[in-house]
Amino acid sequence: MSQLNSLLSLNQLNQDQLLGLLELAAKIKQKPQDYSQALVGKSVVTLFEKQSLRTRVTFDIGINRLGGHAVYLDQQNGAMGVRETVKDFASNITRWADGIVARVNSHKTLLELREYSNVPVINSLCDLYHPCQGLADFQTIAENYSDLSKVKLAYLGEGNNVTHSLLLGGAILGMEVAAICPKGYSPDAQIVQQAQALAAKHGGKIIVSDDINAIKGFDVVYGDTWVSMGDDTPLEAVKSRYMPYQINQQMMNDNGISHVLHCQPAHRELEITSEVMDGPSSIIFDQAENRMHAQNAVLVSLIAK
């Protein structure tokens, strides 16, 4: 990724760079031994303001498989910007570490980390974007479809950070991506406009609608929890709003959907049924595995020398 020293959002990438990362992720998955020394002698701080299973485990194990050393930091040292400024945090960490992976509450924290760091910063989730998840998603789709530009991908549920990364990444790849969300819960309008501009440039298409029938004839459907991490709203309180967007076998059959994705954690029988999640159309656990390979592609591209 020439001229890139951090990855905060997929819209930092051009089409060649994004396809190159997906190709590298596939190579790392197929021949991990070829990359077992890629980060030898390197230490990467993995900072978590939010709880995590897939992100923490895949970065920790992934860095180890590349020959590097992961240093996990949580909130025991105090909230970012409270005990000490983000500037001072970054200025200290970059004297020791070779990279920072940050899962944070606010995108502004990432911007400050990048501003005051002289090592790569990788966004492992913030309020606006989830680029590492998006890369794993597109890698998983690419394993099942030879030409990403011909794939139709539909996201169902609340417009959120995952939706934003799917829209931006899909647009760069020339895909048709639909965000099907209840009225009032659509993705950020500015990010949608960015995705539409990228789609126009690359021959893709962006659809934002509350109509579940808009996914007729799509290839892949994507689910996420109905309540974003950090929101303490009970799922039962939003059930009536989102139940029409549930991914179930009838919906799959009615719309001719071939594959299903979900970034997890999944609330079975709410946003997705167990019949679908455990069924033959599910590539959800391939998707979870690919978090590590996609992230390792980013680490190799930004940190390995």
UniProtKB/TrEMBL annotation:
GO terms for biological process: citrulline biosynthetic process; L-arginine biosynthetic process via ornithine. Pfam families: OTCace (PF00185), OTCace_N (PF02729). Residues 6-143 form the Aspartate/ornithine carbamoyltransferase carbamoyl-P binding domain. It is an enzyme of class 2 (transferase). Its EC number is 2.1.3.3. One of its GO terms (molecular function) is amino acid binding. It catalyses: carbamoyl phosphate + L-ornithine = L-citrulline + phosphate + H(+). InterPro entries: Asp/Orn_carbamoyltranf_P-bd (IPR006132), Asp/Orn_carbamoylTrfase (IPR006130), Asp/Orn_carbamoylTrfase_sf (IPR036901), Asp_carbamoyltransf_Asp/Orn-bd (IPR006131), Orn/put_carbamltrans (IPR002292). Residues 150-301 form the Aspartate/ornithine carbamoyltransferase Asp/Orn-binding domain. PANTHER family: ORNITHINE CARBAMOYLTRANSFERASE, MITOCHONDRIAL, ORNITHINE TRANSCARBAMYLASE, MITOCHONDRIAL. SUPFAM superfamilies: Aspartate/ornithine carbamoyltransferase. Keywords: Transferase. The keyword Hydrolase does not apply. This is Ornithine carbamoyltransferase. Belongs to the aspartate/ornithine carbamoyltransferase superfamily. OTCase family. It comes from the Bacteria.
